[in-house]
Amino acid sequence: MEAMTGKRRIKLALLLGALGAMGPLTIDMYLPSFPTIASELQTSASSVQLSLTACLLGLGAGQLIMGPMSDAIGRKKPLLIALMAYLFASLAISLSPNISFLIGARFLQGFAASAGIVISRAIVRDMYSGRELTKFFGMLMLVSNLAPILAPIGGSGILLFTSWNGIFVVLGAVGFLLFLVVSLKLEETLPPENRVPSTISQTLKNFLSLVKNRQFAGYALAQGFMIAGVFAYVSGTPFVYQNIYGVSPQQFSLLFGMNGFGLIMGTQLVARLSHLVPEKRFLMAGLSLAGTVTTALVIAVLLDGPLLSLVIPLFFFVMSIGMVATASFTLAMQSQGHIAGSASAMLGLLPFLLGSITAPLVGIAGEDTAVPMGVIMFSTSFLALSAYFGLVRPAEKRASEHV
Fold it and tell me: Where in the cell (predicted)?
């Protein structure tokens, strides 16, 4: 596997990137339709945001199941089961008669989509380590990071021809297409001799060992808090941009998609320069950038600044996410090869668990203020820095003292 080069390596990155993109596709494609869903289902903005929370909870909970399951029975079989479940959940959402049904079905859709995220990352760890892991993960993220750009644009495009229900029909078709490609093209990467038991006690033991590892916990929390800030941005901007600043669904999609390029820039900085600059420096740079721009964002929303005063800091915040997510994943996974599925699940769980808290809080003061979004994003950036300095740095100091 290590010797894979050329076309096979690119094809694998495209497939795993597409699987990893199931999360952002599932989250982002329906964002332009938030106001429309609220109107057609005769519900509030906060209720529509709860459908995002339900999806995030599903994405988090699913990784707790799918990660350890893939450690026990291999990567391919649970992936195929989840992709078929994703198809049925997406079609069910398209037939939602009310917001309660939609919220419940969104949880199931997120649960199924989680397999694409956690198992694709575990497959990468099966095959690579060290700098090669960083490089290939950067290639993987380049593909999956296209989703935040294309998903809302695609969603707003669909809205020009049909209702919001059509967005979920398209998502179901994507799930079915990935099912076919995985079944025909993806080879199993975890041989039977490397699999670990999937009993509840063993799973809990694996997670407990990860939680007790201060460095792993610090990297996981730093990434988790940062991405929780992203979900505040994802949940808040459809209403902030469209209701407060009066942009159309198509203009919102372009603004949202533009930030996807920032995400790609941050990811590729780490992937391309990791042989020159240590991942830890990129992580620190990303955390510092996030703290700076979210401070500017809070000032802008408190002063009711123009649209541009939000767009610029949000772009650089999303860019910082690309740096933090890529560097922290590599640093956290380096010593977890024996339980890569469980480690990947833990790294995937925290962002969605924390994001499920921040997403609905954005709407706590109503649809006509951006202050909660700015304050939450600033707070999560501060907590991410605190996790790094409170857990990773002391653990590194202790390790150096014992050398």
Answer: Cell membrane
